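Possible race condition, two jobs.
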Amino acid sequence: METITSTVARNDNPGGSPQHHPSRGLDDENWLNRWRRPAGARAVALGIVILAAIVAIGMIVYWTGGTVYVWAHLMYVPIILAAAVFGIYGGAAAGLLGAFIIGPFMPLNVAEGTPQTLSNWLFRVFFFPFVGMLCGFLSKVLNERIDLLKEANAEQRKAAEAIALFRALIDHANDAIEVVDPESGRILDVNEKASKIHGYARNEYQALNIFEINPLFNNPGGKSWEVHVGELRRLGSLVFESEHRRKDGSIFPVEINASYIRHERDYILAVVRDITERKRADQRIHQLNRVYAVLSGINELIVRERDTQKLFEGACRIAVEKGGVRLAWIGLLKDPAQPIQLAAHAGASPDTLAALQRVFTGPGCAFTKSALETGKHAVCNDVEHSPEAAPWRALALERGYRSLVSLPLNVDGRRAGVFNIYAGEEEFFDADELRLLDELAADISFAMEVNQQEIERKRAEEELERHRHHLEDLVRERTTDLEKTRDDLAKAKDAAESANRAKSTFLANMSHEIRTPMNAILGFSQLLDRNSPLNEQQRKYLGTIRNSGEHLLDLINDILEMSKIETGQITLRPGPFNIHRLLMDVESLFHFRTDAKQLRFGIEIAPGVPDFITADEGKLRQVLINLVGNAVKFTESGEITVTASPDGTGNRLRIAVRDTGPGIGVEERPRLFQSFEQASAGHRAGGTGLGLAISREFIRLMGGEIHVESELGKGSNFWFEVPVETAAPVAVA
């Protein structure tokens, strides 16, 4: 790896030459280290000494003026060798010292006939030390050079090991790594991961240009390579998403973490991560969120709406607005021998509707026909290539329809119609979505059945009322028909009660049907949040799914509670409890919400309210939570106060919740405590209209009554009185 490894080799040696410590004189080293010098260094030093001895003898002969004393002067050789040895193994100072010690004390008359002059003596005194010092200096220089060569070889080995280690590290990295020339875009080096995910051999990859790998750099509509390089030069590093092309031509999404490196030349180091799975997770979360929005919106509409036509129109509108589809329509099959009649639609122009009425609802639509015949959904995820879509393919493609699903609506065991949804993308409907859509179609079918029963119940009630008035006028004349009329009335009453029971059954069954897929959605959302590497935006989507799911489950619980009330399944469970602690618990429950809205929130307990009372704590707590929750929801500024006080007899407890919210008009107050009814402020803030109805039934069950006092623009005061008994203190867990 030319670029990366050369950088590593120079990290330990910025100057480009082997590092070494500042030179130290050999005189400050001990003798033992001298003897450990390499044999080659000693041999070279001794050779220099012998050469120096020969030269010295020649000089002596020359200076003494003749050759007759040559052999006599050989006596100087031991002195020279001694000085040299001292210098080689002890340093320049030791060689100098040895020569001074030995040289002057050699006998003057070492050979017969040797001139005994003062100059000869001085020559020995100064020449021999010079030879010893010279040998020590030469030995020092040679040893230092050998040390430098050793250090250079060691550093080269370390650099080679570092290069090999770095090469192994990047080849074992989990992400692809590329080194690119910023000027030409040529790929200088890659690791094994880059070769693997792109399908190239390393040598093939290194022969490519970045434009052959990243098609977006040549896309006129995107950022060019030059723009990216300019940003990298300015910022130093850059993280962005892009696309790469494999050897087989397939395109896959990547996240690129690029760094601009300036050394002897400029490089771009890019860490490339394949984010295909992350993109799939994003898409899956988006799909779940989309289906949930449709499911939640239509089921809330089912709970609230009793008009079947409005239910159909709302269901189509929600499917288009929240489901991201192009067209949704509901057709009814009143007579199997007749074509389907369009009942409601959303997302289509008038000319499209006319064409759909002719083509899609007729025998040419194989999917609608299949749904009606089999009672199961029929799906087409590729209109352009599906053979069954051939009769109306041109019409569909012209209007941008690429996928569709036809959902049968079954009422009382017969095919009552279809709910058709058309999307603008291929492969729009997957198996999980189809299961949820099947349940949605079943809920709409059940709502149709219940609404039909409700219509029949109202007809029966109207008939009953007509009979009642008619009987007052004809009682004397129709005495003989009284028994028959009574039978009719009994049947009508049974029909009304049956319809009411069916309504409660519908609410319970519908709540169960919603709870099952909702728990699955919440469960999978938690699994995705816990086990998937998601970014902040993805976790925000998951948070939206969870919060909305929990809201829908609360709605289901309210519906079930109301159903139990209507069927008489709610009973009192009185027991002793601490009323002061209950009020403090309510304050703690709403403390963060009131702080977030900067509202003053207080609990006022009048003297005379006992610590412990006997009543149904759970129902009293639920009523307080409903009333305080409404006050917090509708109050934007000011304060909320909960007061508790005894009445004059001490046998009843009065609790009031007062707020400074928008207030309630006089004309709206009679509807406040009816099921699914809300004031105008409630419609704006959202909700189901069940909280006050449930609270009134609980208070009545406890023997009390709930009241409201309100003035527009000043706030509201909800209060109730319930009979209580003072209880002995009990231990509270």
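Job #2 (started ~2 s after job #1):
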Amino acid sequence: MKRKDYHRDPVPQRADTLQVEEENPWIVETTSILDFRRWQCHRETRVHAERDDLLKTMATCLRRLTTTRNARTIKAIFQSSLQVWFEFLDIEKASLPPVHRIADLNRPLLDQFINWLTNRPSRTETGRLSYATTRSIYGGLRTVLAQCVLTGQLSMDCFPRRPFPDVARTYKSHQPYTKEEMQALMFALARDLRAIKDGAFDGNESDRLLVYFLLVAARTGRNPTALYEMERDAVQPHPLKPDTHCLLTTYKRRGNSVSIQSFQKPQPAEHISMLTADTTALIRDLLTMTSDLVDEAPTELRNRLWLYRRGHRKDLGPVGLFSIHMFMYCAERFVERHGLLAYSASTRSENAPPLRITIMRLRKTFASRMWELTGGDVVTTANLLGNKPQVTDTHYLAVTPDMLRNHHFLGKCLEAELRGTTDDAVTLASLAEEMRIGIDDVKRILKGENNTGVGRCSSPFQGRYAPKDGRTACSAFLYCFRCPNQVVMESDLYRLYSFYWLLVKERNLIGRNQWHKIYGWVVREIDKVIASQFPPHKIREAKEKALTAPHPMWRDRSMLLAVGHA
């Protein structure tokens, strides 16, 4: 038997050390060169500020963020948050303790920075930065300093606790376009698309690209970044319906998620309307338009969809990628070329400002339209947007101008009824103009001639869900709660809550899941929207009366079956 050998193996020959090019501690490289040496000297005296250690540490932190943040975010932090931070250190130098390295930072210093930032003069209407902008600038600085917390160079206690309470309340989110604005925008896009097809378009390549970009954004409701970063293979045949459908794939980097939408393939060219051009047809046109630019584009852009030939700044290369800055520049020219105006309930057409085109407003318009077409189905709308239902319900489903107009109309009807002016000609004319209906229709609503099973209707024969045959009045009572023609007055509450209690009782008969799918949204609409418009004691009286002695129309579920809603 062979004995075990306990001698050590000879030491292997050491491999040559890999020589890694040392990074410049002052430089952060993204799509731009961000040089921290710009802040070595005092901004006014140009005397060396003796903060090289602080600058190098913050450059290292920002460089570390390049692995998780896009180049535009890194550049924004550098040019906005850090620029303002070092401006603060220079201007307030006399009142500050020495700040030479990262360890010199503490909570009193950051508190003083926030206070200075809040009162910093700015070219705004108020002369100060807004609350949300102040928070955004501080947030960029905090993002950089948080990297120092991860490496143990700073303590988490140095950050102020909730320095901007309730900042979300000050943020004004994008509103969906009104129907008039969207019609004018789509008509202008159709006219430009027709000119492009006919070879008569008067504009450069970036203007032509904007037309396709807006049409795809309006048709898909995608996020801006996902649209800008669309690749040339974004459209693929549907695996189950390759002859009739295609899949559009986009990537949302912030959520690290892929969104896939299904679209029908376009019909032959003679059957395509310029206004309703299919999304896949638009993208295939783009592929053809930009095919000659692929070989001239930089390597990292060759798989991108939105390529164009530069007319200026050719020192950056002959071919560029359509960006947010180019979008804003081209959108202004587009609005000016077509004379597009922003319409709202509070502005007359002659006083309306120019329309402001943004992708987020198109996305919110898409969300509102899908929510309306799906009958208030938040889950389906969220799937189309690529979001969770909670996010869609909170951030995308806004109160539309139609809802506001109906709400104002309801309030004016109640006021007219209480004042006894329901027969006054001026009041009737004002109500007719408010709802854009005839004076005779207003009279019928106020007198109760257009009563429905759950309220009143401003147009029972020509409303959104009416048969529109001129003879048959609408009887789709569930649809009343998502119809712009619905009106509910105080005298209708008893009938409305009789219907309400009948739906509640139905939950024990058809199962919880089925009930939530069919009737749940109606009950929520009554509780959250309609009930809040009336005095609580009136709602309480109507609910109690309807529960103990329901209106004859809604005494048993056979009425639901009779109208075809069960």
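Strands lie at 27-29, 33-35, 235-237, 245-252, 257-264, 307-309, 319-321, 456-457, 486-487.
Logs attached separately.
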